[in-house]
Amino acid sequence: MNIVVCVKYVPDATADRKFEDDFTVDRVGVDGLLSELDEYAVEQALQFREKREGEEITVTALTIGPEKAVDAVRKALQMGADSGVHVVDDAIAGSDYLGTSLVLAKAIEKIKADTGADLVVCGMASTDASGSVVPAMLAERLGMPQVTLASVVESQGDQVRIKRDNEGSTEVVGATLPIVLSVTDQSGEARYPSFKGIMAAKKKPLETWSLTDLGLDADQVGLSVAYTQVEDTTERPPRTAGEVVTDEDGSGAGALVDFLASKKFI
Amino acid sequence: MSEVLVVIDHAEGEVKKPTYELLTIARRLGEPSAVFFGSPEQGDAVAEKVKKYGAAKVYVVDDAQIKGYLVAPKAEALQQLAEKTSPAAVLLPSTFENKEVAGRLAIKLGSGLITDAVDVDESGTTTQSVFAGNYTVQAKVTTGTPIITVKPNSAAPEEAEGAGAVEAFAATVSDAAKTAQIVATQPRQSTGRPELTEAAIVVSGGRGTGGNFEPVEGFADSLGAAVGASRAAVDSGWMPHAFQVGQTGKTVSPQLYVANGISGAIQHRAGMQTSKTIVAVNKDPEAPIFELVDFGVVGDLHTVLPAATEKITERKG
Lengths: 266, 317
Ligand SMILES: Cc1cc2nc3c(=O)[nH]c(=O)nc-3n(C[C@H](O)[C@H](O)[C@H](O)COP(=O)(O)OP(=O)(O)OC[C@H]3O[C@@H](n4cnc5c(N)ncnc54)[C@H](O)[C@@H]3O)c2cc1C
Ligand SMILES: Nc1ncnc2c1ncn2[C@@H]1O[C@H](COP(=O)(O)O)[C@@H](O)[C@H]1O
Prior knowledge:
Chain A is an alpha/beta fold. Chain A has helices at residues 36-51, 70-79, 97-115, 134-142, 195-201, 251-262; strands at 2-6, 9-11, 32-34, 58-64, 83-87, 119-123, 146-150, 152-156, 159-165, 169-176, 179-183, 206-209, 228-235, 243-246.
């Protein structure tokens, strides 16, 4: 069995994230890293393997992104994934959800043809786009059941069951492998790479694919054929610092209530 | 005028406020047709409600074949409805589930998708709040039928009389769409407080509560507010995940947000930074949350909040 885990290289949320002149996300000028939410996906992929002792299971980490995005795959390899694939091509830059999901689906199909793809694991959202749509779109493109936003994952044989929080309820969802799974940050802390893991990662197979390797043309993806267009981006003006008072002998509560009353909240 | 499909947000036929916001926005783009996934028996009552906000038609899609499965059947039904009506746009309330429905629909229709809009204008240009609320982005769907998911509190619902003509729509759900089965559902117990994402006031507590949410809840109740929590409070098991505000919880955009014992990490800000008025109570004057506030109190929430609650109750007489 082979598990594909989709990992995205994203600009660091604690850095000054910004846009390029063409309104695409600056993925080069800002320090990037493996999306924290995809660490949970890697963790669940590894646990899936570890829980099935005696079965032959491999984990392939897959990313689409610029040159530096390979760091996301490296981190996954350090955590314990067995092999990596980095799809990089200038023509992919600026792809929207339709383009990104197309390239990911093609890459997964190629992995499937080589080593199989019985389980595709994604994070609940990328920390830059925050769409939470790519896993569902992959399921649609690959014709696999989608089992998304899992906070608990259990499996037996080819049956997978998850628990998920929906708007007004908690649900248990079941499906038969192969499936596309996405996991939330409630699914369990992700492990840190060990020193041994970091050393071992250097020897693990890591392939680089272009659009041609996936049988795609440059005019099928990227900014120029995106189905959506960004017209403008504006930095939000910093909030003007308001009044901050220090509570002394109960003065804070009075000041707070006066403020709320002055704004007609009471 | 072209139809605009608007997916109704409801719980067991109880229409939620974001539906009315969506219908108000839809009227800028064309004539709203509301889409109700639910039991046909509830269709007429739902239609009565949504027609007050301008729904000319109400498509009632019997969800007997839909509700037991995850996302895929809804996307198929909407595809069929879109092919029948050639709508000017498809608008959905921005819940996790609807975003996934929208994603699949975008592929089926070959259409552009915009998620988490906080506004949509007459020309179909959307506004999104990105990078934890640090940027706003204007964007537009340029190919196919615009599919847009819209966040709660994106517009003030405005009434407008619509015909509200009920039309049953028989969707065909393929076997392929029934592969992820919902085997059990446990409804969450209502707290009796307003819904977090819809509330005009949200009062949240973080690690600084030390696990005692009573001061936060008492203060919230005195203001008629919803209660929220930081991830630290949720991870500690003090509050259920459904109450979490932030990147991996709910995004709220109320008139007033009160953060108590919350430091103001970027992931928390992502869920509350667009609130109109922000207030914080925190005993650390250096806490980053104070950079955002309109008003702040440096103090212990365990003394400030109960005293404030008492004063508010007094004022109300
Ligand atoms: C991928 C990812 C996703 C995340 N998603 C979210 C999310 O959705 N939501 C979220 O909230 N966080 C999220 N986080 C976590 C976030 O980074 C912070 O760790 C978290 O918000 C901290 O919660 P806190 O402010 O309650 O706790 P702390 O940061 O520990 O702050 C506690 C505050 O309480 C104050 N305090 C202590 N005692 C008192 C008292 N008696 N009275 C008044 N003040 C007091 C302290 O001064 C301090 O400022 C995420 C993190 C990651 C990596
Ligand atoms: N460029 C990418 N490369 C690899 N995986 C991705 C990429 N974009 C999105 N994903 C996967 O899809 C999930 C959801 O992304 P999104 O829909 O953008 O919020 C992420 O957590 C990843 O697992």
